[in-house]
Design goal:
single chain, alpha+beta, Transferase(Phosphotransferase), domain 1, 3 domains, 8-stranded mixed β-sheet, 7-stranded antiparallel β-sheet, Fungal-type protein kinase domain-containing protein, Pkinase_fungal, Kinase-like_dom_sf
Length: 705
């Protein structure tokens, strides 16, 4: 433990996540009342068995909570007479109680069987037990450590509760209990407390959690939402209806994002996209800053910022730093008090020394420790505060953007699909021209939307491709060289580039560049052609995909094995032209046959062949002979040879021009039935969020077919 607390009835660190001010009466008063009612005999809790079963624990917790409710009512009566004080007003609080859940069955609508057996729920017969209704949980078997407790359990809560800022849970093993606090920055773990001896700490956890208001349980009180719909209070009081949840992306220790469709605050009848994200404050340029700069530069087919804010809760900036700073302050106070006691003890006589020794035996090892296994950074003030590591500080940001669009897979015809891909190539080019790299091109971050102007001046009105996520953008001018040897992963595994995968597997230095964004887009192109059987998001049956490369890329999982399988598949798929064509014709649905040649030519543009030194020298010599010639055949030969050069030696303008030409040629050759003038309007499709969940299940590796 980094710090201990001496001769204290309770651990002051626990008062940070569950403060007395957030409870109707102080925990000390609860314990005093429980002792008077005979629940604790001075040595142990009455009725606490030597071996409490999992079913016994929530029953006992609730007995204590019910008794504390009576004690609170007694205090209210005395408060009305002026003899005692009660925190807050007299309005009724939500009633929360612990419940036992059978562990061998999944929650309704959830595929995951493993779940906590003791959960904290609202006392309402209409509330069913599921991840989205869970306020907190208790693990009665696990040791108190981040790896065990914050894996699937906490991730499920964050992903199903769209307005969750942090999650608290406890671990109870035999007669020892502890608390864990988890947010997007990582985990903090309390000390371990004996349930019979550390009575205030025990009651603060198991009863205190039942008495907390939503804000103190970790809910965002500015976002009132159930099952993806509700309302959000934006800025200085503007209220917008939330129509649907679109995407959830929670990863412990990294930036977490929720996306929603909301009513446009200014344009009646219109909707826009709301991004609700926890953003690393060390970032030089936040997503909203990047978007505003791109909007000012006139970059097309990226979202326009309607409004943005840093969320405030209880009058304060909603930041993961708040809790950590409070923990450090408590540590400072403990050390200051201990220094005074030590000074007094050093001046005392021998009897005093004996008292010190006796006191040392009663140390309470309570402390919130930053979990070293989670991503963290050294803080310059850490030594002064008693902590050697602090997690990255993340603030709660919210952005409203327009236009709101459809999924890329909801294209109406092949012409609309490949022109949308051309739109994204254009965005990547515009970003590169202005010194930006997106680093997160995926099917989840591309949308189809209408806009008045068409950069490619197509004769028919169409849904255009928009690149909608800029969380991981790198601005080379402000953030310096992009060569890294130790990178945090960016992008989704199915669309992660081979160089990035090699970096993680083989610790190879990696420098993200524009061609990596194009490579990710190519995987998106192949993904759609593999997973779908036509316009409007028509999906294929999973049995038709088991042998495909896209099936091996997967959506879920990021183990070393997953990374290696994805890397080998992508390298095999793209490295050689004839093999690529063979695998493409096997994997892609026949609906996309009219653009097979287009995909092959795109592969040739994006994946240069491996050259030995002599081959490279011969190629560059031939190119020099052709350089400057203006006849069409010489220009064409020069460009084809240029695309065989390594990425670092290529002229980006030629790469983008060739990609545009490949798509334009494919559009010209499309049969009439695949053109925009013959596209039929499509009916209502699945929500975006449902689409993502189905994709995740769709491409999950089937270990037992």
């Amino acid at each position: 433990m980094a710090q201990t607390t001496k001769n204290l009835k309770s651990d002051p660190y626990l008062k940070v996540p569950i403060p007395d001010v957030a409870l109707p009466i102080p925990v000390e008063a609860m314990v005093e009342g429980l002792k008077k009612k005979g629940f604790h005999d001075g040595a142990r809790w009455v009725g606490w068995k030597e071996k409490m079963s999992k079913k016994d624990l929530p029953t006992y917790f609730n007995r204590l909570a019910n008794a504390v409710d009576q004690i609170i009512e007694e205090h209210k009566s005395l408060a009305s007479s002026g003899s005692l004080a009660v925190n807050g007003d007299a309005s009724p609080r939500q009633r929360l109680r612990w419940a036992f859940v059978a562990i061998n069955k999944p929650y309704p609508g959830e595929p995951t069987v493993r779940k906590p057996e003791i959960v904290l729920l609202t006392c309402d017969e209409r509330v069913s037990i599921k991840w989205s209704s869970m306020h907190a949980y208790c693990d009665s078997e696990a040791e108190l450590n981040a790896v065990t407790l914050t894996g699937d359990f906490t991730k499920h809560i964050f992903n199903t509760q769209q307005n969750r800022r942090f999650v608290m849970n406890c671990s109870l093993k035999d007669d020892t209990i502890g608390l864990m606090y988890t947010d997007s920055s990582g985990c903090l773990v309390s000390g371990l407390y004996n349930v019979h001896e550390d009575v205030e700490d025990f009651i603060r956890i198991v009863v205190g959690l039942t008495l907390l208001e939503p804000q103190h349980l970790g809910y965002d009180t500015t976002l009132s939402i159930v099952e993806g719909t509700g309302e959000v209070i934006f800025g200085e009081g503007t209220t917008c209806k939330v129509l649907q949840k679109l995407d959830a992306d929670f990863h412990l220790g990294s930036e977490c994002t929720m996306c929603f469709e909301v009513e446009h605050p200014e344009k009646k009848g219109m909707t826009c996209l709301m991004s609700d994200a926890w953003v690393d404050e060390e970032k030089v340029d936040k997503e909203v800053d990047i978007l505003r700069k791109l909007n000012a530069l006139g970059v097309t087919n990226v979202p326009k910022v309607v409004a943005s804010e840093i969320v405030h809760i209880g009058g304060h900036v909603d930041s993961t730093e708040n809790f950590r700073s409070a923990v450090c302050i408590v540590g400072d106070e403990i050390r200051a008090e201990q220094a005074v006691r030590d000074e007094q003890d050093s001046a005392s006589d021998g009897d005093g020394d004996a008292d010190i020794a006796a006191g040392d035996e009663e140390e309470n090892p309570g402390d919130f420790l930053l979990d070293a296994s989670m991503p963290s950074k050294t803080n310059t003030g850490a030594e002064d505060s008693g902590n050697t590591k602090l997690h990255a500080v993340r603030n709660h940001h919210r952005i409203l953007m327009e236009p709101f669009g459809k999924k890329l897979s909801e294209f109406r015809c092949l012409e609309e699909f490949i022109l949308a891909v051309k739109d994204i190539i254009s965005v990547i080019k515009q970003l590169h021209d202005n010194g930006y790299l997106n680093r997160d091109v995926s099917i989840f971050n591309i949308a189809l939307a209408e806009q008045d102007e068409d950069a490619f001046q197509n004769a028919h009105r169409r849904l255009q491709g928009f690149l909608i996520s800029f969380h991981h953008v790198l601005h080379l001018e402000t953030e310096g060289p992009n060569v890294k040897t130790d990178l945090h992963p960016t992008g989704r595994l199915p669309f992660m580039v081979v160089d990035m995968l090699q970096h993680f597997l083989h610790k190879k230095a990696f420098a993200h560049n524009y061609w990596h964004d194009l490579e990710s887009l190519f995987y998106v192109f192949c993904w759609v052609c593999t997973a779908y059987s036509g316009p409007g998001g028509e999906r294929r049956e999973i049995q038709d995909l088991r042998e495909s490369h896209a099936f091996k890329w997967k959506v879920l999982g990021a183990s070393v094995e997953d990374l290696k399988v994805a890397m080998d598949s992508k390298h095999s798929f793209t490295s050689e032209g004839r093999r690529f064509q063979r695998d493409m014709e096997r994997d892609f649905h026949r609906y996309f046959a009219p653009i097979f040649d287009c995909v092959c030519q795109m592969r040739s543009c994006l994946f240069p062949p491996a050259f030995d030194e002599d081959g490279h020298k011969s190629s560059t010599t031939s190119m020099k002979e052709l350089e400057g010639k203006e006849d069409a055949e010489a220009v064409r030969t020069f460009r084809k040879m240029h695309l065989k050069l390594p990425h670092e030696e290529r002229n980006p303008e030629i790469v983008f021009e060739e990609l545009f030409a490949v798509i334009d040629d494919a559009v010209e050759k499309l049969p009439e039935e695949h053109r925009l003038q013959n596209a039929k309007p499509l009916g209502t499709s699945l929500t975006y969020f449902s689409h993502i969940r189905l994709l995740q299940l769709f491409f999950r590796k089937q270990r037992h077919p």
